[in-house]
Design goal:
CLN6; 6 helices; mainly alpha; single chain
């Protein structure tokens, strides 16, 4: 259906989609809250710091599953948007979540190397000693991509 639907008609005919609510909730609990638990339970030796961690695999699953749930949710909406807008929105969402995934992965490895999360990038002792100093700019860029751009897109 295309076109405007009266808001009072929408409320009368729009059922609560328990199945989608359940899948979003289950995914959130398993993949978001379960991520740090899996990282604590599974031995670090199984996931060397130069390879994806257990938490990274949880994030990857999130990036694969969520777009399908969002598409199903949009498909059931009484109001439709242009298909191109739906696709661009899903693509931006996945890109933002992926940027965040990469930032979290690198941040996780930095913490194992002595990075102090409560300090800014330039104030961290392990970052101060980087040579050449232009590498510090790269870590600040990574932080910007994760915390600002990635989160906004996500």
């Amino acid at each position: 259906r295309h076109g405007a639907v009266k808001s009072e008609d929408t409320f009368k005919t729009s059922p609560f989609h328990f199945d989608l609510w359940f899948y979003f909730t289950l995914q959130n609990w398993v993949l978001d809250f379960g991520r740090p638990i899996a990282m604590i339970i599974l031995p670090l030796e199984w996931f060397p710091l130069n390879k994806p961690s257990a938490g990274d695999y949880f994030h990857m699953a999130y990036n694969v599953i969520t777009p399908f749930l969002l598409l199903k949710l949009i498909e059931r909406s009484p109001k439709t948007l242009p298909r191109s807008m739906v696709y661009v929105s899903i693509i931006v969402f996945v890109m933002g979540a992926s940027i965040h995934l990469v930032g979290d992965s690198v941040n996780h490895r930095l913490i194992f190397s002595g990075y102090q999360h409560h300090l800014s990038v330039r104030e961290n002792p392990i970052i101060k000693n980087l040579k050449p100093e232009t590498l510090i700019d790269s870590f600040e860029l990574l932080y910007y991509y994760d915390e600002y751009l990635g989160h906004s897109m996500w």
